[in-house]
Amino acid sequence: MVVEGGDYITTESGTGLVHTAPGHGQEDYQTGLKYGLELLSPVDDAGRFTDEAGDGLAGLNVLGDGNTAVIEKLKTSGNLLSVDPYQHKYPYDWRTKKPTIFRATSQWFASVDGFRDGALAAIGETEWLPAVGERRITAMTQSRSDWCISRQRTWGVPIPVFYDRQTDEPLLNEETLSHVQRLVAEHGTDVWWTSTEAELLPEPYASDAGRWRKGTDTMDVWFDSGSSWASVAEAREGLRYPADLYLEGSDQHRGWFQSSLLTSVASRGQAPYKAVLTHGFVLDEKGFKMSKSLGNVVDPKLITDGGKNLKAQPAYGADVLRLWVASSNYAADVCIGDSIIKQTFEAYRKMRNTARFLLGNLHDFDPAVDAVPLADLPELDVYVLGLLDDLLAEVRAAYDAYSFSRAVGALQQFLVSDLSNFYLDVSKDRLYIAAPDEPRRRSCQTVLSRVVESVAAAAAPVLPHLAEDIYQNLPYATPHASVFEAGWPAAAPAQGEERRGRAAWAAVRSLRDEVNRNLELARAEKALGASLEAKVLLHCADPAVSEALARWSGASNGVDELRFLFLTSQVALVASATEVTERSLFSSTREEGPAATVGIAAADGTKCERCWHFDPQEQSQTYEGVCPRCETSPRCRRLAGRQRETRAHLARLCIGR
Fold this sequence. Notes:
Domain Aminoacyl-tRNA synthetase class Ia: 97-334
Protein name: isoleucine--tRNA ligase
Shape: elongated
Oligomer: single chain
Keywords: Aminoacyl-tRNA synthetase, ATP-binding, Ligase, Nucleotide-binding, Protein biosynthesis
Structural class: alpha/beta
Enzyme class: ligase
CATH class of the largest domain: Alpha Beta
Pfam families: Anticodon_1, tRNA-synt_1
């Protein structure tokens, strides 16, 4: 018979001679159905020829002696023209590394046609993270017609079917199923394998048990896992169905996600989950799949606990491992290795050190007594609290969307850029120089207190140990015993003026970067040393920004003054860019964000021995070398006392000589 093959026959590969065996290949099976070919599969479960293969072949291994015997049989019968080894593509079993044998066998199937539309509707009602997951599982569900639910394994959940020993007709009805169900509920699934047919069958079948044999097929493991929503989420107290989230690798759109969907829709009419999150796989540092044979497996315990040589393999702790996971884009495959973990540890260390700085500067602060009301805070402090509220909102939204890398990135950005590089930098003067109860110092501590508690809460889902360390080391009493009892921080009352002033603050921070660049040029040329030796000359062409700069230039609260924001001794706003250039040692002009000309000159006046600021006013007559600002500070009196003691001690040494 001549048959026409399908798309699987091409002119680009193979010998051009195609044999068709309907019992040994899916494409061949479809062709056999089309042309009514006989279905023959003379291979048993052990990969040996059966009696159907003919004399001399029964019992021989198909991939071993059986191949040789078939060739000899063809030679003997005169039906073999030539034998020539030919290397071609063929599927191999990934575990045993041996060729795969395909054969047609009797199986149990579940038809998806009856509830496919319901499954597709349930897919549309589910949140998929990332969104591409919805397209993947939709395409796979649309093209699925039958589900082969039986397997031929020596382990697993049995399919409770009995067969007539003479005709192989199956016995499967409500009576037999209910009886087996009660036995399994009482004794477990092993009862099927350890009991006889007479013990497994209900009456009236038990009395005729010799007629029946129990089946040996097991349920597809995807059916097992796919029905876990019924045995776990739905059945156990404290859990609920449908589940909030299913989480697995990106290969499960064809596996667990789909099998769970099909079993749930078929029996309950809805998806077993509200959201599904898929992730990539962990690769080694070079992007290769981990394998024991390659020796590139990274043991998480080695990262948390360290190796035998702690210098070479330090113990980073669980938080660092968690931070690596949370920082990764799990939608794709992620890499891990020594250098990656070291980078993660550095990021963790910066976060921890920032928290230590915050806690250290709260040593004498009690919010119940010392906190400054929001309405009385300087503009800078209100601005930073606004940034903090934005951070908390962004982190909360990221957590809700399971976007952990976005949450961690926002937290790190706030700690490094907004806090360490800006707010904490410009606040050191009032933290270190101001008197303990001075309002400008207490206002800063009010902000630091809220920041450190909020950072602990924001970090807690990812860095629980660090968050709890921060909370337990707060130097004042809190109403909760743990950061995990404190809950999510409430947002500060909205400040309309703070929101409107965001653009001006962004401009100041941008100008601050320009000032720092010019200061670096001055240092490189040895024209100036520390930034407090400098005076900033500034002309801004933006009217709105100029108005804010003028307000802050004249501020008298010791916080919002431009000189503190730029960390210089003086700031002068001048009328033109030309004047800036003429009066500066170094200057630069920017065209946008905002358009301005910035210059650096030597500061006017004398350096204060206490705060190191240069002040053009006459120094204190009471305390030598001290500026008028520091003269009123109690700390200044202690400093002056130590200076007098030092001078007296030096005088005695000189007299002794």
